[in-house]
Design goal:
Blueprint lengths: L2 H27 L9 E7 L4 E8 L3 H31 L8 H17 L4 H63 L4 H15 L5 E4 L5 E4 L5 E4 L1 E2 L2 E2 L16 E2 L2 E2 L13 H30 L16 E2 L16 H4 L1 E2 L13 H4 L19 H9 L4 E2 L9 E2 L1 H41 L3 H35 L2
Antiparallel strand pairs: 1-2, 3-4, 4-5, 5-6, 7-8, 8-9, 10-11, 12-13
Length: 486
């Protein structure tokens, strides 16, 4: 081998060591960056020696796609669980202390106490006050549910705005990747940014990717709706600032196609947008319907009846906008829980007489039960107490069956929400574990291992020393050769 060839080999070795050291140093500096994929030099043999011909970026497409799906599932489940927890606290309170079921239990106790001493007006006042607490629980619950729906709309609007921004940024980075690939430039940094954007996008909607020539990428949802193809597709949503019971929320449109909400406690929602739709249009709506049915059941249970059987039943202790009529049995009235109120005829704060609860007659003399005005009369109070345990017809649209007692139905509303929250919490734990497992597996495949990088750096140091010694020997040989020709 000639001295010229030996010199070329030594020079290329030094150059390769320098390039590889630079790559390893970058790997080490980005070791804590979860969006960075490890780089490695591609070395090809040449005559003489070898040279770095490119940089290879570590990838695992299968794991990356699985990771995106797991992130979407975890985010959707987490948003649903948080929404259900908020619903429980706002409507039922901590440990369900402000729930309608709890207030109903107190009303039953107050009526039992009053029935035992019907001559005591203070106990009559206490019973009406307990009824007022039931009304307050239903009114406040309705207000809380509709406020939550409006809050969820604001969250959706912010998420849609952020998703559009991410898709716009994805368009720019994808164009950079395509242009760099066509010209043969290293696009590893741009690919890192594009993958990081995909992770962020998948937290809002589920993402499927198709890679075309020159690393060009097409994004669709798992349902096949296009999110990006050459240009970002619009995601649109019109938020409602306020909600009323029975009011439908607006849809989210991706490229003109409505996004479907998730369903179930262990939700099918992938991404936060579908989960927020589920909270707004399913969980909150069903909770409102259940409160409305409790309110209707109360008006029915405490209705006044004509002792002669001539006049129609009329609203008694509890009334509503349609009073003095009684709502139709088993038929949902949207917003009834928000409009139910104490009958003014029995409310002393408005000039009423609470003892009408004992005697009857809130709707006129024809409905009086205690015709003699006896102070010890308790038949009507006992009859009202018995209605707590009488079966009623309920609208199955509220998801709690079509019949039951008022007390059991109000308790089932708590059980329904708690069951949903339990499923959501267990689903969150499972999906979080899966997402973390896949993220770790992907990191092991494409991330930086400090031990390996330090070992490689030591090898490069030895290679550099060997190349430097070779150059030194060649220099001595060339010097000896020149000295000999003088």
């Amino acid at each position: 081998m000639s001295l010229t060839n030996a010199l070329s080999i030594a020079q290329s070795a030094l150059f390769n060591s320098s390039r590889q050291t630079s790559i390893v140093s970058r790997n080490i500096s980005e070791a804590s960056n979860p969006d960075y994929a490890r780089r490695a030099a591609i070395i090809s043999s040449t005559a003489p020696g070898a040279r770095v011909t490119g940089i290879r970026r570590a990838t695992n497409d299968v794991l990356f796609r699985q990771n995106l799906s797991a992130l979407s599932g975890w985010q959707g489940q987490s948003v649903l669980s948080q929404g259900l927890n908020t619903l429980q606290i706002r409507v039922n309170g901590a440990d369900n202390t402000s729930s309608p079921a709890s207030a109903l239990g107190k009303l039953q106790t107050a009526l039992q106490t009053y029935a035992s001493t019907p001559s005591n007006r203070t106990l009559a006042e206490n019973a009406v006050e307990a009824a007022r607490q039931v009304v307050r629980s239903l009114n406040n619950g309705t207000a809380a549910i509709q406020a939550l729906r409006a809050d969820t709309d604001r969250d959706i609007a912010q998420s849609v705005s952020e998703l559009n921004r991410l898709l716009g940024e994805f368009e720019s980075v994808n164009a950079e990747v395509v242009a760099g690939t066509r010209t043969g430039r290293d696009v590893s940094d741009a690919l890192d940014r594009r993958d990081a954007l995909l992770k962020q996008i998948s937290s809002y909607v589920p993402v499927s990717t198709i890679t075309r020539a020159n690393n060009d990428m097409v994004l669709t949802t798992t349902g096949g709706v296009t999110l990006f193809e050459t240009v970002a597709r619009p995601v649109t949503f019109n938020a409602n600032h306020t909600y009323t019971a029975g009011m439908a929320g607006n849809a989210i449109y991706i490229d003109g196609v409505p996004l479907s909400p998730g369903s179930g406690g262990n939700t099918t929602a992938l991404g936060s947008l579908a989960a927020n739709l589920q909270v707004r249009d399913q969980a909150a709506v069903q909770m409102q319907r259940q409160l409305d049915e409790i309110a209707r059941g109360l008006i029915t249970a405490f209705r006044e009846t004509d002792p002669n059987g001539v006049l129609a039943d009329a609203a008694g202790l509890f009334t509503w906008a349609g009073g003095p009529g009684v709502p139709a049995a088993g038929t949902l009235v949207d917003g009834l829980a928000g409009s139910i109120r104490i009958n003014a005829a029995m409310d002393s704060s408005t000039g009423g007489n609470p003892e009408l609860l004992r005697d009857g007659g809130a709707n006129g003399a024809a409905y009086i039960r205690n015709a003699t005005g006896a102070a010890s009369y308790a038949d009507l109070l006992n009859s009202l107490l018995g209605r707590f345990d009488e079966p009623q017809a309920f609208d199955p649209a509220a998801s709690l069956g079509d019949s039951g007692t008022l007390l059991s139905y109000s308790s089932e509303t708590i059980g329904w929400l708690e069951s949903l929250r339990k499923d959501a919490a267990s689903g969150t734990e499972a999906k979080e574990a899966l997402a973390n497992h896949l993220a770790t597996a992907l990191s092991n495949e494409t991330g930086v291992n400090m031990d390996e990088e330090m070992a490689l750096l030591l090898e490069l140091e030895h290679s550099y020393e060997a190349s430097a010694r070779l150059l030194s020997v060649i220099d001595e040989m060339i010097g000896t050769l020149l000295e000999a020709t003088r």
